Amino acid sequence: MKKTLTALLILFTSFTVQADQTLVIENIWIREAPPTVKVLAAYMTLKNPTDQDITLIYAESPAFEDVMFHKTEITDGIAKMRHAKEVVIPAHSSFELTPGNYHLMLMGRKELLKEGDNVKIKLIFKNIDDQNVSAVVKKTISE
To answer: DSSP secondary structure string, 73-107?
Structure first.
């Protein structure tokens, strides 16, 4: 009985580690801004093929003083950004951070960023390993 429980525990742990490594992060980019603008936004697609929801709880970047999750909401024709504590990527689904919706608000830019530059961002999750990504700076969405 003890051997069976140990074998099941090892099997379950192996499955969990494997599931943690299957999050796919694509199309990571930051819109270029004029030199005087210190607040930018990062966008990306997070694909979760696993059987469990994945929760993104924090992000950080050495190129910015602070990073927060925001969601743009339009009320009575006025766009407002609301702070979001976390972002949940549902099991077997994708979650997009896009202009006009959820995005990473990058505050306190430390250096000038121009088209083609790459910015390191660390994504910190509640239930899987942290992910280090690189966002390319672009002039527009279509590039």
So the answer is: EEETTEEEEEEES-EEE-TTEEEEE-TTSEEEEEE
In angstroms, rounded to a whole number, what is the distance separating the alpha carbons of residues 37 and 31? 11
Q: How far is residue 102's CA from residue 79's CA, in Å, rounded to a whole number?
A: 13
Please state, in angstroms and rounded to a whole number, the distance separating the CA atoms of residues 63 and 136: 13
Q: Closest Cα to residue 135, out of 89, 103, 108?
A: 103
Spatial separation of the C-alpha atoms in residues 28 and 103, rounded to whole Å:
11
Residue 89 token pair:
């990527």
pTM above 0.90, yes or no: no
* Residue range 95-136, pLDDT digits in tens: 999 998 999 999 999 999 999 999 999 999 999 999 999 999
Alpha carbon of 142 to those of 8, 26, 40, 96, 116: distances in Å?
Answer: 48, 15, 17, 16, 14
Q: Check: CATH 3.40.50.1820 for 23-138? A: no
